[in-house]
What we know:
single chain, 158 residues, alpha+beta, 6 helices, 5 strands, 34% helix, elongated
Amino acid sequence: MPLEHVSSQVSQDVIWGITRSNNSYLVKRKSDGGAQFSRDPLNLMNKHSRKYAGYVNNKAVGVQPGENGEVKLVTKKTKHLNRPAANKNEVVWGRNKSGPKIYKGIVQQTAKQGYRADLRQEAIARASAIRQSHRPKKETPGPKLRGSKAKKAEEKIS
């Protein structure tokens, strides 16, 4: 049997069982009660769990920031599982696209095509956070003087 067909025949549960405690994406924190996070680019919530692990699931979804304020949706193809360069599909929305168009596109790519409908809300939330992070920050206004200090400042101006 050729080697390229073997890895696709291994159960996702077996892969998770083997790599759950140690893998390259795992981030362990001793503080916060020993929380475990993931750096997997196909992990929408950055939680170390079977549901969100992109390297384990044959169908995985990731939303990443692109260059110049773009939002990039990355899905894992079910074909070519053992060819990392060929098993990802990317869709990019520019910074000029409106939010609802991006969110509708994410829903079209994930839930409506039967591709991991359980991750639809997480993907939309991640895209929304990425869009919001690209907006320029507003300056906080200075404190508004009230009472006797405001009257004194007004007298100095006049």
